[in-house]
């Protein structure tokens, strides 16, 4: 049985106590730490950037799963890689198609895993040509920008299409509105990496919340 990778999103953590909040999920069995980078242009919200990733690298052994919701991601790959990102996922909608393969190659040239993400309204067919180059596909199950939104069912159905066309090594990740119930739907469709922010961090029992996603 393949293990499901749980990646808590620190967007819902306490930014004044990131170390404590990361250690909590680490001790309760989280696999990765999901870091949401937003620029106020690609999405209508601003979060954190390279210096925070650099600091997080010093305080956790978990892989840093960095989700770039920014314009011109190609300009920031090197900085995030050098800061300690282990996975760099950028958005299909944020770049011209002819840049996608070069950006994937650039990410990989730093020994970092490369991910490509699609927003709710993006047809999964559009990213099929890149699956063989990618380590991870991130299917957004909410509009990117904010935590705590409601899971969009039709987005999860895209998992089936990706799964059907991917090789077994491709990690299929979902992000947005993930809880025990929606995690089950996504896993049935073939997702093997789950991002969850508010469900984990707003829970009174973080350990059970993480376990309920597996
Ligand atoms: C949203 C971010 C998510 C966010 C998910 O744009 O990409 O990672 O933290 O939050 P929840 O799990 O609360 O929907
Ligand atoms: Zn995210």
Summary?
The chain is an alpha/beta fold and 214 residues long. Helices cover 35% and strands 20% of the residues. α2 (50-59) runs parallel beside α3.
CATH H-tier superfamily:
Aldolase class I
* Individual helix count: 9
Rg, Cα atoms, Å = 16 Å
Low-confidence stretches: none
Which percent bin holds the helix content? 25-40%
Give the oligomer, counting copies of the same chain as homo and different chains as hetero: single chain
CATH topology: TIM Barrel
CATH architecture: Alpha-Beta Barrel
User: What is the CATH class designation?
Assistant: Alpha Beta
- The amount of beta strand, in percent, is 15-25%
**How many beta strands in the DSSP annotation?**
8
Q: What structural class do you assign from the helix and strand content?
A: alpha/beta
* Overall morphology: globular
Element-by-element helix/strand order: EHEHEHEHEEHHEHEHH
Largest sheet: 8 strands, parallel
């Amino acid at each position: 049985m393949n293990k499901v990778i749980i990646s808590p999103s620190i967007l819902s953590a306490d930014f004044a106590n990131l170390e404590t909040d990361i250690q909590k999920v680490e001790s309760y069995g989280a696999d990765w730490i999901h870091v949401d980078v937003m620029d106020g242009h690609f999405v209508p919200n601003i979060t954190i950037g390279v210096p925070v990733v650099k600091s997080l690298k010093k305080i956790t052994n978990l892989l840093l799963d960095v989700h770039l919701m920014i314009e011109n991601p190609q300009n920031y790959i090197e900085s995030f890689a050098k800061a300690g990102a282990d996975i760099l996922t950028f958005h299909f909608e944020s770049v011209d198609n002819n840049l996608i393969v070069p950006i994937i190659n650039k990410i990989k040239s730093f020994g970092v895993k490369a991910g490509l993400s699609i927003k709710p309204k993006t047809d999964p067919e559009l990213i099929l040509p890149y699956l063989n180059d990618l380590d991870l596909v991130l299917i957004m199950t909410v509009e990117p920008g904010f935590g705590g939104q409601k899971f969009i069912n039709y987005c999860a159905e895209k998992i089936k299409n990706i799964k059907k066309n991917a090789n077994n090594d491709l990690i299929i990740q979902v992000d947005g509105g993930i809880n025990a119930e929606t995690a089950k739907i996504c896993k049935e469709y073939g997702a093997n990496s789950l991002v969850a922010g508010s469900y984990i961090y707003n829970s009174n029992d973080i350990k059970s919340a993480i376990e309920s996603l597996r």
